[in-house]
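Exercise 7. Predict the joint structure of the components listed below.
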Amino acid sequence: MIRAHTVEQVRAAEDDLLARLPEGALMQRAAAGLGYAVLDLLGSAYGRRVLLLVGSGDNGGDALYAGVLLARRGVQVEAWLLSDTAHSGGVAALRAAGGRVVPAPGAEADAQRPSRDRFDLVVDGIVGIGGRPGLRPEAVAALARVAGTPVVAVDTPSGVDVDTGRVDGPHVTADLTVTFGTHKACHLLDPAARACGAVQLVDIGLGFRGSQARTSTTEFSGPIEALQAADVAALLPRPAPDAHKYTRGVVGVRAGSAAYPGAALLSVAGAASGLAGMVRYDGDPAAADLVRAAHPEVVGPGRVQAWVVGSGSDAGAEDAVRRSVADGVPMVVDADALAFAGTTRGRPAVLTPHAGELARMLDVERADVEARWLEHARLAARRYDAVVLLKGRHSVVARPDGRARVTTTGTPWLATAGAGDVLGGLVGALLAAGLDPFDAASVGSWLHGAAATLAAQRGPIVAGDVAAALPAVVAALVGP
Ligand SMILES: NC(=O)C1=CN([C@@H]2O[C@H](COP(=O)(O)OP(=O)(O)OC[C@H]3O[C@@H](n4cnc5c(N)ncnc54)[C@H](OP(=O)(O)O)[C@@H]3O)[C@@H](O)[C@H]2O)[C@@H](O)CC1
Ligand SMILES: [K+]
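Solution:
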């Protein structure tokens, strides 16, 4: 499990360690991890040119000492100091190792004029966990002069809001972020996560591994987690040796209509992933005929352990939600049915809006949701007293108490019509199999992303390909 920790928590862990270690030891560990990550990315050292952008704090210190490591291996290292008070030990060490240290060109320099020197890579040591969101003009100017060069961010891409994943104003967009001790929210949550590129965690002995995130006093309330393959494998329902179809759970689908039979087919395809014992379809007769033709194992209405209500159900959405709520079993509420999500209060439910749908549910602008995913997912979870799976590049699953998980599987190819129907059906199957709504939503979302990635290895995908790839993803996790 990846658990993001707040700046406050990182500082507390660092204080514990600093009291026990020689001065500078933590920075040396961080810089070594960073330096080797840069060497890996460069692929070779001699003749390569690396630029360090160095701010006033320890983030710049990390960059400078990583530069020492690189210079000693033959890389030509240049550091642009963005402040008069850059880490003095780091500056001296880099000069001693043969690096060039100069003041940054400054905000008044012509930002459109590219640097005369070409660099293979830029290391962003402008600010880390001590930074305020946004960038100062001199940092913006320096970045503009090396635009187009690959960037490795030290700890966090400078300019993003570390604890919330928000992005307001200019920031670094990295190809790789090398972080220390633990992940922070900005590494998981969009839009900041998009600015991180790949994220590499360097162990510096902060002692977070396997530890529970503590609740912070900031607005960042409750831990943020990202399930990993082993977590999903542990949570996946498996048939007991003496299982029969009813003990494995029955999932019912109320989606699709005569006008939109595809929604019925795709929701059922997600539900029929094999993770529940049986699938029932309760919907329009014409859609039901198509469902039976494509999925002969699917049966008609009856008792279920979970309902999936939503997409394409036309004017029937309200009635479908009402009847499902009356059954008292857990339910997935998607698409058209989200307009009636308020009626599921007090029942175990997973609401699966995308950003536009969540904006309507909260009566806010879509752009606000997309700027602050976690905050809005949590707000909706509290307001609707349900688990909310806010679908996006990094989907967020939030509980009413603020606990949240982020999905980091997936591929841009997943942005395809009907993929949400497959996800709804899949989450319904997991609910029927007995997972609680938080686990069902986060495991379903993880599997959905992994299946899309697998399917996309053969080229562009459509929603049905995602459903078809689910068994192979499950097999890779838990064996045949
Ligand atoms: N904790 C750990 O476990 C370890 C931490 N380590 C490393 O230390 C980093 C944290 O270092 P830190 O505390 O010195 O803060 P940091 O982010 O370098 O800069 C803060 C200074 O920048 C300034 N400033 C603020 N906002 C700004 C902006 N938008 N744009 C420009 N400047 C801005 C402001 O100073 P000002 O200029 O306002 O005086 C402020 O004081 C951490 O990310 C990691 O890399 C590792 O070495 C070892 C283990
Ligand atoms: K940085």
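Discussion. The CA atoms of residues 254 and 309 lie 5 Å apart.
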